[in-house]
Amino acid sequence: MSITSFLPPVRTLMGPGPSDVHPRISSAMARPTIGHLDPLFVGMMDEVKSLLQYAFQTKNELTIPVSAPGSAGMETCFMNLVEAGDKVVVCQNGVFGGRMKENVERLGATAIMVEDEWGKAVDCNKVEEALKANPDTKILAFVHAETSTGAVSDAKTLCEIARKHDCLTIVDAVTSLGGSELRVDDWGIDAIYSGTQKCLSCTPGISPVSFSKKATDVITSRKTKVNSWFLDMNLVMGYWGANTKRAYHHTAPVNALYALHESLVMLQDEGLENSWARHAKNHQALRAGLEAMGLSFIVDEADRLAQLNSVTIPDGVDEAAVRGQLLNEFNLEIGAGLGALAGKVWRIGLMGHSSRAENIILCLSALEAVLGDAVKQGVAVAAAQEILGA
């Protein structure tokens, strides 16, 4: 057998991630590889840190890209801040709160669960009660934008509650960074992680993280070693830290960081608030089209993410067959439901470079064609265009 080059088709990615990669970012990855300790590369690293501080809206010195995908960013936050015997209040309103719980328990700490219905925002009153009942809690952990449901929670209020109870916060912003309002310093977030493959229009494989001064002090004064050598910020800071001679820690993914740099330059050029507004407007257009054809959302409007839309499946429709037909006939990817929502919803992403008018029109017209008599025909595109043209 002779294996030849892999040549993937051109897909339109409108699932829960990855999103479409902007051509500028693909081009950036093809630039010449230089050494990860090359002075020019080190200079670019400093620019990446500055650009990430802008994206996160923070002045945190320890704001860096972890050389691995968003799940590693999650582990970076938990590994560095949680020690055996600690108590962590974990909010779960979807799949990814459950992953937070896994991290806590694997580190020998206790997870106090605050659970809400999938598709609902985290209940701030329940969090307050949990912290009152557990005054020795060290950390409050929650998902800002729950990718499995499309619900956004009130990060600002949750952080205020945590501070009132003298807790650190760990926040999952994998789907919100660049697409939803997110203000790390103003909201008082202590540790936050994201991914490059969603609203940053970049390739998968890098996880931006940021730690407040308070969180950094906890890391440097730990009683025990961080359980992961690779993710130990005490070591990584020697490579990414400011005002220091860069110490070798690992071989950074040079070309992937070119891509991240380019994506962050594009975010800077568009303007962060303009990016938030673009995602919001495109969501309204998609929503208008979906509702015109008779489809509905599982998340209440006030708690609904613009960039991740969980849409109910009409009665009698084979959801997997629809996704397969969209992929095979239209080169269009949308996502399936996860966990408790498996088989009940489609997840339609409008993230980063995927959040474009032409993608919305393609998605609506393709869904009409595939769903046939299960939806109202000939109305979706016009409804969306009314919003897009406004």
UniProtKB/TrEMBL annotation:
PROSITE patterns found in the cross-reference section: AA_TRANSFER_CLASS_5
Protein name, per record: Alanine--glyoxylate aminotransferase
GO biological process: glycine biosynthetic process, by transamination of glyoxylate
Swiss-Prot/TrEMBL keywords: Aminotransferase, Pyridoxal phosphate, Transferase
Keyword set includes Transferase: yes
Molecular-function annotations in GO: alanine-glyoxylate transaminase activity; L-serine-pyruvate transaminase activity
UniProt feature coiled coil, ranges: none
List of residues binding substrate: 347
Source organism per UniProt: endosymbiont of Galathealinum brachiosum
Cofactor section: pyridoxal 5'-phosphate
Pfam family, one: Aminotran_5
Domain Aminotransferase class V: residue ranges: 35-338
Taxonomic placement: Bacteria, Pseudomonadati, Pseudomonadota, Gammaproteobacteria, sulfur-oxidizing symbionts
Family: Belongs to the class-V pyridoxal-phosphate-dependent aminotransferase family.
Modified residues (N6-(pyridoxal phosphate)lysine): 198
